[in-house]
# Entry
Amino acid sequence: MKNKIILSVLVLFFTFCFIVLYKGLNNSNIYVPETKIEKTLIKFNSTDLYSGNKISSDQIFIGSEYYVLNIWASWCIPCRAEHSKLIKLSENKSIKLIGLNYRDNPKNAKKFINEFGDPYFMIIKDNQGMISVDLGAIGVPETFIINKDKKIIKRFLGSLTEKSLNEINLITK
# Structure
């Protein structure tokens, strides 16, 4: 009788453990914040990578129907892989491609651009990473499509792909 009770408790315990572990496998622990469509772009101040001139977001996001803001860094391996797609994207004349250089050494950032090409209309610096955080970015690279009303209408986490490029081109036609 005592053996049957012990066996029953063990079976229940292992069944409980199995259920908990199985449920845990089906739930992703990767946190991806919600992307709010039509979220208003934050106002920020930065400096131009090349000239060092101070510039505000109100001066950057003016005069175009669409903007593509790409957060990148020279030390970021996926950014290197993505760069050829940005070069291709820069051929789209209906957008202004803005580079936001994330927590990077300006010398290394310039070397990166000289080596791989400059697809950007403008490159601004995010030395402390606070502009990126305020935008809701969780890493680099990350890309936002912004309309003329300064509303974020689409967000791409990670490197752009051919599918992403096609989607950007469809949105910005």
